[in-house]
Amino acid sequence: MNPLLVRRTGAEFIGTAFLVMAVVGSGVMASRLSPNDVGLQLLQNSLVTGAALVALILALQPVSASFNPIVTLVERFIGVIDTRTAALLVAAQIVGGLVGTVAANLMFGLAPATFSTHERSGPGPWLAEVIATAGLLVIVFGTIRSGRPDRVAFAVGSYITAAYWFTSSTSFANPSVTIARTLTDTFSGIAPASAPGFVAAQLVGGALGLVLVRFLYPQTTDVSPADAAADRKVLS
């Protein structure tokens, strides 16, 4: 395998693992520190997640910093990466997320993996995931295509922190994170039966986000050399 692709795959694995550790671990800590205040728990969880995203993207963007299969699939659709690379990165994100959940559970003295009993389903949360995911893609690719790739980390971290609060689903917006969160029966968990609906909504949101990016930032070709270079610098 190409050494660069190995590094990129490793970066996606590590970044997604740490992202999920931040989500799950802060959820456990918040529920223990503020057991009677769900609003405060959500605030703590959202702030930690947003901060972790900023740090991880800043650290890993020279290698690869998508941490999200939807972002990776959009990169494939616009021609930034090829099919083989996309498949490897998505696999690394999914496995990394699962490892992150297990690590977070173990850090807090829980079983390595326990299926969540937190049901999250219905038209409202599904619509929220469509909106959250579409918005995330506009934030990511809009920032890049407007010539500000160095600000993606702050834009994404800020958006996800806010989306925790303005969406009824608390903005998962990421299939690998959604799958990983089925293995923790804690504050941030999602029941396995609820995960397919969330992932389906995220895929719809991804398609909508791609349309919005194309509309707001049109190109004469799928990928120009400048766009490809900018995209790779931040996301691949």
Structure characteristics:
single chain, 236 residues, mainly alpha, 9 helices, 70% helix, globular, disordered C terminus
Question: Care to describe what's here?
Answer:
With 236 residues, this protein is an all-alpha fold. Helix content is 70%, strand content 0%. It has helices at residues 3-33, 38-60, 69-77, 83-107, 123-145, 152-166, 175-180, 195-216, 225-235. It is globular. Mean pLDDT is 93; it is low at 220-236.
- The tally of strands reads 0
How much of the polypeptide forms β-strand, as a percent range?
Answer: under 5%
Q: State Rg.
A: 17 Å
Distinct helical segment count = 9
Helix and strand run: HHHHHHHHH
Supply the helix-strand structural class: mainly alpha
First and last CA, distance: 16 Å
- Helical amount: 55-70%
- General shape: globular
Main pleated sheet = none
Mean pLDDT: 93
Question: Can you tell me the residue ranges where pLDDT is under 50 for at least 5 consecutive residues?
Answer: 220-236
